[in-house]
Design a protein that fits this description.
Elements (H helix, E strand, L loop, with lengths): L5 H5 L4 H10 L4 H16 L3 H16 L8 H14 L4 E7 L3 E7 L16 H15 L3 E7 L7 E8 L6
Antiparallel strand pairs: 1-2, 2-4, 3-4
Helix pairs in contact: 4-6, 5-6
Bound molecules: zinc ion (ZN).
Amino acid sequence: MSNKFPMKNKYNHSMEVKRKLSKIFPMRVDTIYSTRILSIIKVLKAESQQVLYDAGISLAFEEFQGIEAQDLSSALAQIADLYMNNSLGKLVMDGAGKNFLLVRNYDCATCVSAKNNGKTYCWLDAGFIAGALKQMLNEDYVVIETKCHGTGAEYCEFLIAKKRRVEI
Ligand SMILES: [Zn+2]
């Protein structure tokens, strides 16, 4: 009997074989997401910033649909929970100025594979935070990543500010 799909069976290993294989070829679950995002950034170049930011907003709109928050700090706490539960990082408040907030993301899944080349990489996360805040608070925020593995920091830092309406 001919096997039309040999690839399917090729990887149908027993648990014992899988365990042996994972010792030889460790699953890089902690970096594979980051490697893929960085590849998208490499291909899209400068365009990647807006594309990933908008993708983050779109994703957050779906994830936080129907969820409301009383204020900014409880909205951020909900985003931090989602980050923690999905191994995307440990999001913590870092400080606040008159018109802005700073949050840090430790162990960020997006930029863990990034080299220190002076760039920030977590546009998807910045957009996601902005989108989640819009969804929960019904207010427009701008989120800018100011520190990243790509800039040599040990954590990512995001500046969060309310979007000002420009009146003409
Ligand atoms: Zn980052």
